[in-house]
Structures are given as structure tokens and as C-alpha cells.
């Protein structure tokens, strides 16, 4: 088996962009943190891409590196202790890690905006919501105070905050969790970005409010034809909104696939284990399938495949060789567009 | 609010018309009875908990009350798991604390084996506490970081030395560690040396120490990673069979609640909206709130996403300090009519289903209840296509 090639060029999904360059592409990204206890290799080769109008879901458990990847894209990593030893982050084909600071500033925050999990701590508590929304227009577009406020009200309306005109001068704590998250969305939308990165945007919300917020996000994405990177650990949310999925484990992408394919035929034992552990009606009363063991401590990632201590399929090679992200094919070798699996035994996993 | 005066009532007020036995010895004797499987072991009647809202620092003036739990009744049967679901702030944890005697109800009763336990003190209270234990939501903050695992799990023995004599404790604790799947040699370690899932096991071991009959679980797996949740759920189900436990299982993950529960109660703003068997609630919800809640849950199956009818509620949950008149759900209910603002619907089998048999025949607090099986979408993940995608056993 040719298992040791470091990166695999996956057949890219049909790009919506005419040029064929993805809107955003992350290539073999590495991020490490230099801490007192040594070097934490938080990201060890992340590859994913997203196009305009497309939703990429990044799925993984806590600590798997979802947020660190997003922070690297947004340029908000703590550096130091963080460091990016290698990798590329291409916006419309241009590497943001090597471009000039001025070029970068034109992209981050304007073309790419981010929504955080915890809206309350990402809004300034002593400034009114209207002021914070208006600031985007005053700073970036040089609008007058009055015009910026009018824009802020328009945006609040847009994200369905009732009585926006009356509430524009209220402070963040005067809004409910769902409304604060909608204000965050308004803020991200203000400059009409091409791409939104949403890091667990609804994890802190109740299901009925979560449904409202996801619904809003999907509608706005369609309307503006934005790319969306949705970071989550919720297999339900992913199934509901994603076009394609990148599964992360211990700082790497272990599987990529279009959404229907992934749920139907996972090609990585970790993905398969996650799907099998969903409670199913026909198994009520019997044991749930459970992946054994625990996610690894990122300061001591197991050698070889990081999943090997928990994997039922693990062989000797898994304990010594890091599996590359192999292109996944049908049994007869036909390519499966957009599919990849970082498992030495992906064939056995998908084709049984 | 007149109700509030009753708060912190004396123990003698407790039983009242319900139990005549008032001496501690009689109460203790009642607690020693065994309850047959399927008989009620806990009966909650008209339970109310209002937290006073005060103003002023020196002279506290009451300006209102948070109606966290507002007239709730339900039974827990011996050997069953009763799931309790509902959105944040609806009163789930307050119910748990009331059942555990960690809060005193404003009014209402909690009957354990027929005795009201909500206003007990002294020996009788100690006797109940032995039999009703709790597992908390957050495995990171609920364990004392300065105590060893052995001390944490063995702490209940300090209060109830009769369960394990001093010389026997270490062995008992090691047995408990083994029962919950932790290495007995970890007895001298501290909580920070364990992962979330392992800490939750420590919490469960502690809950089991006194051989309780009932365990109240408040979001026992919510803080855990997906791949670890299944391990803890399996453990809890195994222990239930092994030790003949009854569970009240509070959670917001509706698919986990369905997996583990025999019956499910749905709470909204301090009230029980609907209660029934898992199939009745999930496949034939008749209360609009339950229908909306179920339809909002994202299904882990992309094949169903365009077929599902989704009810997107508008607005947020109102404040429990100022709940709507009549039916609490009316401000978000698409079926609300004039009557809903005037009268509070009872939790009972709705008139239209009273004389029909079948799954719609269950308690639902709505004047216009309707069986709406179509809102519950297929719960099935896709059928395994390749033979290897079964369960690895
Ligand atoms: N000690 C207290 N003093 C005042 N209000 C309280 C107190 N404890 C709870 N409450 C209020 O009572 C209501 C119900 O709270 P509870 O903690 O029972 O909700 P919950 O259903 O467990 O929510 P969650 O899903 O967020 O855990 C909330 O409005 C809460 O703010
Ligand atoms: N500032 C930091 N210093 C050291 N380690 C960090 C820092 N930020 C994140 N990490 C580590 O990087 C890994 C990935 O974290 P993160 O991306 O936040 O995970 P998640 O997938 O939950 O979003 C974790 O092991 C985390 O502890
Ligand atoms: S490479 Fe080996 S250990 Fe890793 S997932 Fe595949 S089979 Fe399991
Ligand atoms: S009683 Fe009225 S407001 Fe309440 S749930 Fe039923 S229809 Fe809706
Ligand atoms: Mg994160
Ligand atoms: Mg709670």
C-alpha cells in the first residue's frame, strides 16, 4: 500500500467560481503553541476548502482544533504562544500568510467575517448595540453618525430583531441569548462579506432558538451567495445545513465528504464510530455503540494514526505511520468527488 | 404573594392530610418498605417554588417572584426512567433540587413511599437522603478539587456510617470505582487528573455509595464529548438493571432522553406541558410546544432534511418572573385563541382523546390538543448500506 505520501491532492468538488479557484482554501496548515509544558501541536495538517454559496461543516470534538484553525484564518491566534510553522491559507488563490499586512486587512473582517459561540463576551457590554453595529460603517465606510445608525437599524431589522428602532440604543445584556446571537450575525453581515466563519454559533442556545438562528443564517447565506464555514460538534446540525463536511480529530482532517455520502458511507473508523453512537430507535433498550477510550491530550498525541488506541481496526502500521488523506474511490476505482480519508484501511472501512 | 409565606414551614406542617404517621420512627419504617416494580415510588403533587425578587440592600422589599416551578404534579415508578426535557430556565434543575430536599417548596408535596418528604428534618431527612441521590450536570465544578477521589466517593459514609464501618470503607470505595469502570488504584488521585467522562463516573460512584433507590440526574452527559456520552449512558443503564434503580433523567438532548427513558415529561416556563410514554410523546405529541420542540431538533440524517415540516417558533421564552396569563405558551403558540389567555389548561388527557384508545391518549395541558404524528420526522439514521456499517460486536 502506498500509505506514506504526505499530502494527497483530492479531486476538488465542482467549483461555483468560474476560475475554479475556491473562495477559501486551507492547505496543510500547522499550528503549534509553545507552553511551559512543551510544544502543543494543536493543528497537524488541515486541508479544506469552501466556495461561494457553499456550506462546509467542520465537525469535531472539543480540543480537536476546530477553533484554532478558524483563528488562524481570521488572524486572531495568540502569537506567541501560537506559531504557524507551515501551511497556506488561500483567499481566492492568494496566500494570506505571506501577503502584506495591508492586503490582509482588506480581507479579514471585510471579506471574511466571524461569528463566535459566546455572543455576550464578544460584544462590548458598555456600548449600545446600535453604536457597535454603526461602528462598522463609520470605521470601514466613513459614514456619518446618523447614517451609520440608520444602517444599524436596517441590519437589526434584517436579522429580525423586533422593534429595532426602539431597541437600537439598548445594551447587549438587555437582549436574550438568541437576540444577541442575531446581533452578532448582523455585525458579521455589515460589510457584506464573501465568507462567514461561524464557530459553534448555536451551541449555547435552546433548540427552538437554535432553529430560528440557523434558519436566518441559511436564508442570508442564500441571499448574499456567501460561503459559510460552520464549526460544530453536533451531528444533527451538520446533517441539516452542510453541503460538505470535514471531520477533525486531534488536529487533523481525518475525513472529507459531501454530506449525504458521509452519513451513508463513512470512510474513516472515527466518523463511523460517531455515527454509530447516535441513539437509534431500533436499538432502544440495548446498549449504545460507544467509541472506547478518550480523545487524546494534544501535548501527547499517539504516534502513527492519532486514533489508533481507540480504533477497532488498528494494525501495527497504524501505530507507526501517519496515514495521509487518501482520495476515496469506489471499489472499481471510480473517483468519488470531494471524498478523502486519513486511514490506512479506508477501503476496508467504506467497502467492508 | 400569599404563597410565599408558607416557605420554610415547620416540619409539622408537612404531611398534613396525606400522611398520618408523624413520628420519626414511623416515617423511617415507611421508608424501609419496598416498592414493587411499576408502582409509584415518588409522587409529586402541586409542587410550587417561587424565588422572591427583592429590592434594596438594608431593608429588602419583595417586589415580585420568579415562578421557577409553578404547580407541577407527576409520578416516578419504581425501576423506570422518567425523562424531563425543556428549554433553559424552564425549571428542570429547580425540580431536581426540590426532589433532593436541597430547596424547600413554596407549596405542594413530594411523597416518597407515601410520606411527604418536602419538609422533613433531622433523622427522618437523613433517612430519605440515603435513598435519593443526585448526579450533577457539570463534572468539572461539582467535585471538590482538594479531595482525593477516595474521599469524594467515601464522603457519604461519613454522614451515614452505618452503611460502611470505618475499616471497610476503602474496600467499598474501590468496589464502587470498579463498578463504574474506573481503575480501583486511582483512589488517591485528585479530580483534575481525570477527564470529563471519568469525572462523571466519579460523580456516579458517589451517587451509588449509599445504595439509593432513586437517582436524580441533572444533565449528566451534557458537558461531555459525543464519543464519551454513549459510554456514560451505557454505564447508567447497566447500573439501573444491576441495582434496581429509578431515575429522573433531566436533559435537553431529546434523542438521548428518548433512548434512556420509559416516560418523558416536557416542561415549559415552570409547568409540565405534556407527559407520557416515550412513544406517546415522540410519535404522537398533542401539545403545540412539544410539537415545535421536536420539529426543531436537527436530525442526524441529511436524507430527511427537505422532507421535514419544521415549526419555527417566533420570539423567546417569556420571563418566569412575569409569565403570561392563562396558558404559559400562548405568546409563542400559533394556535392560541381567546380562551388561552383567560384560563390555565390542566395537565390531563384532553377531552378529544379521553374516550379514544391509542397513543394520543395521554396527559397534555392544552385546550386545543391535536395528534400531529407528522411533526415527528423519521428518527432513523440511514439504514446501513454496507454490511460492515453495523455495530461492531
Ligand atoms: N436561587 C434562585 N433565585 C432566584 N431565581 C432562581 C434561583 N434558582 C433558579 N432560579 C430561576 O428559576 C428559573 C428556573 O431555573 P432552573 O435552574 O430550574 O432552570 P433549568 O430548567 O434547569 O434550566 P437549564 O436548562 O438552563 O439548566 C430560572 O428563571 C432561574 O433563573
Ligand atoms: N492559547 C493556547 N495555548 C495553548 N494551547 C492552546 C491554545 N489555544 C488552543 N490550544 C490547544 O489547541 C487544541 C485545539 O483547540 P481548539 O481549536 O480550541 O479546539 P476546538 O476543536 O474545541 O475548537 C487544544 O488542545 C487546546 O488546548
Ligand atoms: S489508520 Fe488504523 S488506527 Fe487509524 S483509523 Fe485507520 S485503521 Fe484505525
Ligand atoms: S392552550 Fe392555547 S396557547 Fe396553550 S398550547 Fe394550547 S392552543 Fe396553545
Ligand atoms: Mg472551539
Ligand atoms: Mg439546569
UniProtKB/TrEMBL annotation, chain A:
InterPro entries (UniProt xref): AAA+_ATPase, ABC_Ni/Peptide_Import, ABC_transporter-like_ATP-bd, ABC_transporter-like_CS, Oligopep_ABC_C, P-loop_NTPase
GO-annotated cellular components: plasma membrane
The keyword Magnesium is annotated on this UniProt entry: no
CDD domains the record matches: ABC_NikE_OppD_transporters (cd03257)
Record's protein name: ABC transporter ATP-binding protein
Main location: membrane
Gene3D superfamilies from the UniProt entry: P-loop containing nucleotide triphosphate hydrolases (3.40.50.300)
One record GO biological process: peptide transport
Compartments, record wording: Cell membrane
Membrane topology label: Peripheral membrane protein
GO MF assignments: ATP binding; ATP hydrolysis activity
Organism (species): Streptomyces alkaliterrae
UniProt KW keywords: ATP-binding, Cell membrane, Membrane, Nucleotide-binding, Transport
TrEMBL record, chain B:
CDD domains linked to this entry: ABC_NikE_OppD_transporters
Domain called ABC transporter: residue spans: 42-294
Molecular function in Gene Ontology: ATP binding; ATP hydrolysis activity
Region of interest (Disordered), ranges: 1-23, 369-393
Superkingdom of origin organism: Bacteria
A biological-process GO annotation: transmembrane transport
Keywords recorded for this protein, A-Z: ATP-binding, Nucleotide-binding, Transport
Keyword NADP recorded: no
The keyword ATP-binding belongs to this UniProt entry's keyword annotation: yes
Gene3D superfamilies (UniProt xref): P-loop containing nucleotide triphosphate hydrolases (3.40.50.300)
Family: Belongs to the ABC transporter superfamily.
Protein's recorded name: Dipeptide ABC transporter ATP-binding protein
Organism, scientific name: Streptomyces alkaliterrae
Organism ancestry: Bacteria, Bacillati, Actinomycetota, Actinomycetes, Kitasatosporales
